[in-house]
Design brief:
Order of helices and strands: HHHHHHHHHEEEHEEE
Strand content: 5-15%
Length: about 220
């Protein structure tokens, strides 16, 4: 139950990435202008900052990223925050959606984790937008299983997810992770928790569920 299929073929993961990016681009294209100003699950970022960040890896070559990192005095968090705000101010909503759609097959990957982590990046940022906006988008199960299968102590520490003494268990597919008091919820909400976010109250159940929900 813990980690799901780690052996998913790279080609299948890349197809899932391309589909996720195209669908999120369509979703962004359909948002009214005022919704781009609404907050997301990423602290301090509106929809436009999240959307700009999602395509940052396609638009900025490595030397530029390293220069930005030096400017941020080695802080990845400061760098991504600065770049997201700057790009969100410079790009139109249409340009941000197009950057995702036109790079659906781009081979970008995070420094660690390969294409499964790239899918996780796209998927969780989509949820950062859709959950607080109350949009009823259901992530396909095959994509959820790939991302849930990447759960690891190193990953949860990196994203600041404090899961000590807790076992996450999906109520809509066969998956669980961790040990301790059981916290249950939809698989896509548990993805959000694995990436260090909190979901709105009422979406999780269990004695420790309040640790992972907003008031």
């Amino acid at each position: 139950m813990g980690n799901t299929k780690q052996g998913t073929a790279v080609g299948e993961i890349r197809k899932a990435i391309a589909a996720e990016r195209r669908e999120l681009a369509d979703l962004l294209d359909g948002l009214p202008a005022e919704r781009w100003e609404e907050p997301t699950l990423c602290a301090g970022w509106r929809v436009r900052e999240v959307a700009a960040h999602m395509s940052s890896g396609f638009r900025h070559p490595l030397p530029k990223v390293l220069a930005e990192l030096v400017r941020a005095r080695g802080s990845m968090d400061r760098m991504t925050d600065r770049v997201a705000h700057r790009d969100a101010a410079r790009m139109s909503e249409r340009e941000m959606a197009a950057a995702l759609r036109e790079n659906a097959h781009h081979p970008w990957k995070p420094p660690v984790g390969g294409f499964a982590s790239a899918l996780g990046h796209d998927l969780v940022h989509g949820l950062d937008i859709t959950i607080p906006l109350g949009l009823d988008r259901r992530v396909p199960e095959d994509r959820l299983r790939i991302v849930l299968g990447t759960a690891s102590p190193m990953g949860t520490r990196f994203f600041g997810a404090k899961l000590d003494g807790v076992r996450l268990r999906a109520d809509d597919l066969d998956w669980s992770y961790g040990s301790g008091s059981v916290v249950t919820g939809a698989a896509q909400d548990l993805v959000v928790v694995l990436f260090g976010r909190k979901v709105p109250a009422g979406r999780l159940s269990g004695e420790e569920s309040g640790r992972f929900t907003t008031v």
